C-alpha cells in the first residue's frame, strides 16, 4: 500500500474522530442535553451530577466518560443490563484478546479462547435462568394452530379441554388471543382525541381570547371520545370477542417442570397442529405477528429471502464501482478525466485512500435497517428473534458483499469462473485477492471505527432534532428522555466482520492489526458508555445471541485457515500448506463438539433446572406469587384496562378486565 494513501486516510479519520469525541464530551456536560446523553439514567430515576452554573470547565473537552467506562465491571453489566448486553460487550473483548496474541497462535489460541468463552457464557446462562426464575415465561407455553371447536364455534374451549386432559396435574389456565386490529385503531384514535383535549384545555387556560371557542371544541371532542369508548366496550364484549378469536394461546402451568415438558414435546401425531414452544417474556412479544397463521410463515420466509437476494444483487453495483475508485489505474482507464486529480497535490491520496471506504460505509449504513424491516415481515413472534434474524442476515450480507465482492470485484467474473472450474485452486485465488485488497480494508477499519463509533456516541441526528424541537413547538415544556434499546442487529455484524478481516489479514498484512485493536478499544469504551447512560434493555434472552456470534467467529477462523493454505501455496511451500489442513479438521471437530456440548442449553430448558427452581420457590414460599404474575402477564395490550384521563368521560373506568 502506498504510504501517502494510508496517511491521508488515517489523518482524516483521526482528526474527525478527535473533533467529534471532543464535541461529545462538551455536549454531555450540558444539562439541556440530558434527555439525549442520559436517557437510561433518567428513566431509572438515577441522580445525574451536572453542574448548571456557568463555568469554563463545562465547555472544555474531557476524558471523564472514558474513565467512567473503564471502571465498569462485567458483574455490574450482568446485574444491571443482563446477559445479552454482557455477551455483546464480550465480543469486543474477545476480538482484543485474539488480535493481541494472534501473531503467534491465531488458530489454536483462537479455538482455545472460543471454547473458554463458550463455556463461561453457557454457565452464566444457566445461572441467569436461575436468577430470573420469577419471570412469567418460565411458567408459560405458546400454543399455535389450535383446532377449531365446531360445537362452541371457538378455539378457547379446545385449549382448556386438551391441556386439562393431557396435563391434569400441572395445567392452570390459558389466555386466548384475538384479532384486535379494529380495537387497536380505536384505542389509538381515543388516545389522539385525549391529547387534543389536553392541548386545548391548556391553551384555554393561557389565552382568554380563545377560551370560548376552545370550550366548544373541547365539548365536541368529548362527545367523540364518548363514542369511541362505546365502540371499544361493544367490541370487548364477550360475544364480539368470541368472533375474533385466533388459533393462538398462552397456556400457563402450575410449575416450570410442567411448562418445560409441554413446550418441548410434540403434542399431536400431526406435527402441524397443537404446536407448542417456550413463550417469550411478555415485553418481548410481537403481538401483531401472532395473528399470522403458522402455515403461512414459510411463504413469508421465501419472500424475505427473495428481497434479501435482490438487495445483494443491487449492492454489487456500488461495491464494484468503489473498487474502481480505489484502484487509480482502473479509474483512469474507465474515466480519463479522473487524471485531473493528479494536478492537485495530495488529492489523489484522498480520492483513492479515503473516499472509497467512506462511500462503502455510506451504502452499507442502510443495510441493517433494510434487514430489520425484512425480519419484521418474516413473522417472528418476538423482538429478540426478529433482531437475531436481522443480525444473521446483515452479517452474511456483509461477508458476501463487503468482503468477498470487494476482494473479487477487480476481476470478478474471471475469478469466480476459475474457482468453479478448478475448485482446488480456490485457496490460491482467495489468498491473491486478499493480498491485493489489504490497503482498502485498512481504510475501511479506520473509517468504520473512528468515524462510525464517534457518530454513534454523539448521536448528531437526535441532537439536532432535540434542539429544533426545544426551540420551536416544544419550547417551555418538560423534556422527555429519548429511550432506545441496543441495536444489536446494527452493531454485532459489523464488529464480527472487522474481526473476520483481522483474522484473515493477521499473516498477510500484520500492519492492519494495530488499527483493528484501536477499533475494538474505541468500540468497547463507546458502548460501555451507551449501555450505562443511553440504551435501555427491552428484553433478556439469557445469552441467545452467543451461539450466532460463535458461528461468525468460527467462519472467520475457517476463512483464515483457507487463506493460509493459499498463501503458503503462492509461496511455493507445499509442506506448509499441507500442515495447515489439520487445523481445518481440528476446527470442524471443535465445532461438532460445541454443537453437542453447549448449543442445546441455549435452545431448551432442562427438566433438571426446572425442577430445581420449582423446589426453591416452594421452599421460599413464592410459587403462588410467581404463578399469579404469570397469569396476569400475557393479557393482550388491546384488552388491558385503559384510562383516557378526561373529566366526565366514561373512559375513566377500566373498560374490561382481562380473563
From TrEMBL:
<dbReference type="InterPro" id="IPR032880">
    <property type="entry name" value="CSC1/OSCA1-like_N"/>
</dbReference>
<dbReference type="InterPro" id="IPR003864">
    <property type="entry name" value="CSC1/OSCA1-like_7TM"/>
</dbReference>
<dbReference type="InterPro" id="IPR027815">
    <property type="entry name" value="CSC1/OSCA1-like_cyt"/>
</dbReference>
<feature type="domain" description="CSC1/OSCA1-like 7TM region">
    <location>
        <begin position="301"/>
        <end position="568"/>
    </location>
</feature>
<feature type="domain" description="CSC1/OSCA1-like N-terminal transmembrane">
    <location>
        <begin position="6"/>
        <end position="106"/>
    </location>
</feature>
<protein>
    <submittedName>
        <fullName>CSC1-like protein At3g54510 isoform X4</fullName>
    </submittedName>
</protein>
<dbReference type="Pfam" id="PF02714">
    <property type="entry name" value="RSN1_7TM"/>
</dbReference>
<feature type="transmembrane region" description="Helical">
    <location>
        <begin position="450"/>
        <end position="468"/>
    </location>
</feature>
<dbReference type="InterPro" id="IPR045122">
    <property type="entry name" value="Csc1-like"/>
</dbReference>
<dbReference type="Pfam" id="PF14703">
    <property type="entry name" value="PHM7_cyt"/>
</dbReference>
<comment type="similarity">
    <text>Belongs to the CSC1 (TC 1.A.17) family.</text>
</comment>
<keyword id="KW-0407">Ion channel</keyword>
<feature type="transmembrane region" description="Helical">
    <location>
        <begin position="302"/>
        <end position="322"/>
    </location>
</feature>
<keyword id="KW-0406">Ion transport</keyword>
<feature type="transmembrane region" description="Helical">
    <location>
        <begin position="549"/>
        <end position="570"/>
    </location>
</feature>
<feature type="domain" description="CSC1/OSCA1-like cytosolic">
    <location>
        <begin position="138"/>
        <end position="289"/>
    </location>
</feature>
<keyword id="KW-1133">Transmembrane helix</keyword>
<feature type="transmembrane region" description="Helical">
    <location>
        <begin position="511"/>
        <end position="528"/>
    </location>
</feature>
<keyword id="KW-0812">Transmembrane</keyword>
<keyword id="KW-0106">Calcium</keyword>
<feature type="transmembrane region" description="Helical">
    <location>
        <begin position="362"/>
        <end position="381"/>
    </location>
</feature>
<feature type="transmembrane region" description="Helical">
    <location>
        <begin position="96"/>
        <end position="115"/>
    </location>
</feature>
<feature type="transmembrane region" description="Helical">
    <location>
        <begin position="393"/>
        <end position="413"/>
    </location>
</feature>
<keyword id="KW-0472">Membrane</keyword>
<feature type="transmembrane region" description="Helical">
    <location>
        <begin position="6"/>
        <end position="27"/>
    </location>
</feature>
<feature type="transmembrane region" description="Helical">
    <location>
        <begin position="576"/>
        <end position="594"/>
    </location>
</feature>
<dbReference type="Pfam" id="PF13967">
    <property type="entry name" value="RSN1_TM"/>
</dbReference>
<keyword id="KW-0813">Transport</keyword>
<feature type="transmembrane region" description="Helical">
    <location>
        <begin position="488"/>
        <end position="505"/>
    </location>
</feature>
Amino acid at each position: 500500500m502506498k504510504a501517502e494513501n494510508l496517511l491521508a486516510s488515517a489523518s482524516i479519520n483521526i482528526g474527525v474522530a478527535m473533533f467529534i469525541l471532543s464535541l461529545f464530551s462538551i455536549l454531555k456536560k450540558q444539562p439541556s442535553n440530558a434527555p439525549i446523553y442520559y436517557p437510561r439514567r433518567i428513566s431509572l430515576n438515577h441522580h445525574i451530577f451536572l453542574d448548571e452554573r456557568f463555568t469554563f470547565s463545562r465547555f472544555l473537552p474531557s476524558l471523564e466518560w472514558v474513565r467512567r467506562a473503564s471502571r465498569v465491571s462485567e458483574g455490574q453489566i450482568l446485574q444491571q443490563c443482563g446477559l445479552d448486553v454482557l455477551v455483546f460487550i464480550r465480543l469486543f473483548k474477545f476480538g482484543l484478546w485474539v488480535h493481541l496474541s494472534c501473531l503467534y497462535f491465531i488458530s489454536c489460541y483462537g479455538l482455545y479462547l472460543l471454547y473458554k468463552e463458550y463455556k463461561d457464557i453457557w454457565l452464566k446462562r444457566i445461572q441467569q435462568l436461575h436468577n430470573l426464575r420469577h419471570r412469567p415465561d418460565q411458567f408459560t407455553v405458546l400454543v399455535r394452530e389450535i383446532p377449531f371447536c365446531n360445537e362452541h364455534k371457538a378455539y378457547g374451549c379446545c385449549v382448556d379441554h386438551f391441556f386439562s386432559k393431557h396435563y391434569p396435574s400441572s395445567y392452570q389456565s390459558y389466555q386466548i388471543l384475538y384479532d384486535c386490529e379494529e380495537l387497536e385503531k380505536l384505542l389509538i384514535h381515543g388516545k389522539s382525541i385525549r391529547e387534543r383535549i389536553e392541548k386545548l384545555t391548556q391553551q384555554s387556560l393561557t389565552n382568554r381570547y380563545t377560551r370560548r371557542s376552545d370550550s366548544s371544541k373541547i365539548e365536541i371532542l368529548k362527545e367523540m371520545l364518548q363514542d369511541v369508548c362505546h365502540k371499544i366496550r361493544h367490541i370487548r364484549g364477550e360475544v364480539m370477542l368470541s368472533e375474533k378469536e385466533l388459533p393462538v394461546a398462552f397456556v400457563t402451568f402450575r410449575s416450570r417442570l410442567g411448562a418445560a415438558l409441554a413446550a418441548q414435546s410434540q403434542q399431536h401425531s400431526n406435527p402441524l397442529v397443537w404446536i407448542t414452544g417456550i413463550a417469550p417474556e411478555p415485553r418481548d412479544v410481537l403481538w401483531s405477528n401472532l395473528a399470522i397463521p403458522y402455515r403461512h410463515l414459510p411463504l413469508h420466509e421465501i419472500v424475505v429471502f427473495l428481497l434479501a437476494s435482490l438487495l445483494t444483487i443491487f449492492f454489487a453495483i456500488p461495491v464494484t464501482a468503489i473498487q474502481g475508485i480505489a484502484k487509480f489505474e482502473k479509474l483512469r482507464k474507465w474515466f480519463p478525466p479522473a487524471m485531473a486529480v493528479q494536478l492537485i497535490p495530495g488529492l489523489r491520496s484522498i480520492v483513492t485512500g479515503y473516499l472509497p471506504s467512506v462511500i462503502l460505509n455510506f451504502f452499507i449504513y442502510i443495510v441493517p435497517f433494510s434487514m430489520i424491516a425484512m425480519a419484521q415481515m418474516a413473522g417472528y413472534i418476538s423482538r429478540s428473534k426478529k433482531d437475531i434474524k436481522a443480525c444473521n442476515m446483515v452479517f452474511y450480507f456483509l461477508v458476501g458483499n463487503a468482503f468477498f465482492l470487494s476482494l473479487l470485484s477487480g476481476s470478478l467474473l474471471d475469478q469466480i469462473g476459475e474457482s468453479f472450474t478448478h475448485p482446488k485452486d480456490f485457496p490460491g485465488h482467495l489468498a491473491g485477492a486478499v493480498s491485493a485488497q489489504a490497503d482498502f480494508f485498512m481504510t475501511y477499519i479506520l473509517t468504520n471505527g473512528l468515524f462510525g463509533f464517534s457518530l454513534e456516541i454523539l448521536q448528531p441526528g437526535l441532537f439536532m432534532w432535540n434542539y429544533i424541537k426545544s426551540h420551536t413547538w416544544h419550547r417551555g415544556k418538560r423534556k422527555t428522555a429519548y429511550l432506545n434499546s441496543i441495536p444489536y442487529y446494527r452493531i454485532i455484524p459489523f464488529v464480527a466482520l472487522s474481526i473476520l478481516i483481522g483474522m484473515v489479514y493477521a499473516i498477510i498484512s500484520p500492519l492492519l492489526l494495530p488499527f483493528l485493536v484501536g477499533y475494538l478499544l474505541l468500540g468497547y469504551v463507546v458502548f460501555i458508555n451507551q449501555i450505562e447512560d443511553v440504551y435501555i434493555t427491552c428484553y433478556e434472552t439469557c445469552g441467545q445471541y452467543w451461539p450466532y456470534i460463535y458461528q461468525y467467529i468460527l467462519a472467520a477462523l475457517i476463512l483464515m485457515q483457507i487463506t493460509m493454505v493459499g498463501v503458503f501455496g503462492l509461496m511455493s511451500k507445499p509442506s506448509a500448506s499441507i500442515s495447515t489442513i489439520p487445523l481445518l479438521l481440528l476446527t470442524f471437530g471443535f465445532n461438532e463438539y460445541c454443537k453437542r456440548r453447549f448449543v442445546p442449553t441455549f435452545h431448551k430448558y432442562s427438566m433438571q433446572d426446572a425442577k430445581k427452581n420449582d423446589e426453591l420457590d416452594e421452599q421460599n414460599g413464592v410459587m403462588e406469587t410467581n404463578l399469579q404474575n404469570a397469569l396476569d402477564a400475557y393479557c393482550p395490550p388491546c384488552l388491558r384496562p385503559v384510562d383516557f384521563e378526561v373529566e366526565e368521560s366514561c373512559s375513566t373506568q377500566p373498560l374490561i378486565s382481562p380473563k
